[in-house]
Amino acid sequence: MPGRWFRKADGLDDQTPPPQIDDAGRPAEPVRTPGRVRRWLRRAVVVGLAVCLLPLVLTLLYIPSAVRPVSTLMITDLAKLGGYDRQWVALDDVAPVLAHSVIMSEDGQFCSHYGVDLGELKAVVDDWQQGRPTRGASTITMQTVKNLYLWNSRSIVRKVVELPLAVYFDLVMPKHRIMEIYLNIAEWGPGIYGIEAAAQHHFGVPARKLTARQSALLAVSLPNPITRNPAKPSASLRRLANMIQRRAAQAGAYVQCVD
């Protein structure tokens, strides 16, 4: 018995198979078993489902007005240790002409569509099929879900994900709240997020005191806030602002969902 115990301890009576050696005399890589592959696949599926479900759950959490969401760009700025300026403001404390100007500049059918403007989307598809330059068809709702959940690029993959998210977002979120969130996470300059910070940075006034002219200039700077400065507009930006200012003054039913 003692001798047998020592043989086991020395590995002489061990039933474990010896390590495999390759042609170069090195230990061969272990062969992954199908069971291990299945476990990794299951984990990948679980992670994928969690990533897909996260925006759906967060959207429900963002419905109460007390919640103040941040955008992926704001999180990126924090991760880069750059910081940002954002002062949350309720939509009721923003000059109505600002919201009207943004709607007339960014998404004229905001109050009537269901997250996606099918007419604009069809026009983009037609232009693409006929080889013409395509225009943007993003609604305010689509821009909101992009800013909240997705990455900033023009990839087809992002658009495919963005469309159903926008429909869901519009389905569960009141229009008034969508506009409130959008105006508080939109970028209005490097590190400048939200209409309150933008109004004070560019014009030195709170959002509730923005004039029709200032509102139009802020609205037309949204498509490219890094290069378009509403406080120092170019001639083309002033022309765009003139048009949006006229449209906002006559918006009527187009903006009733945010009044």
Key phrases:
54% helix, 259 residues, single chain, two-stranded parallel ribbon, 11 helices, Penicillin binding protein transpeptidase fold
Distance between the amino and carboxyl termini: 92 Å
CATH architecture: Orthogonal Bundle
Structural class: mainly alpha
CATH topology (level 3) name = Penicillin binding protein transpeptidase fold
Summarize the structure.
This protein is mostly helical and 259 residues long.
Question: Can you walk through the features of this model?
Answer:
By secondary structure, this protein is an all-alpha fold. The chain has a single domain, classed as Penicillin binding protein transpeptidase fold (Orthogonal Bundle). 54% of the residues lie in helices and 2% in strands. The protein is built from eleven helices and two strands, in the order H-H-H-E-H-H-H-H-H-E-H-H-H. Helix 6 (140-149) crosses helix 7 (156-172), helix 6 packs across helix 8 and helix 10 (212-221) packs across helix 11 (235-249). The model is unreliable at 1-13 (pLDDT under 50).
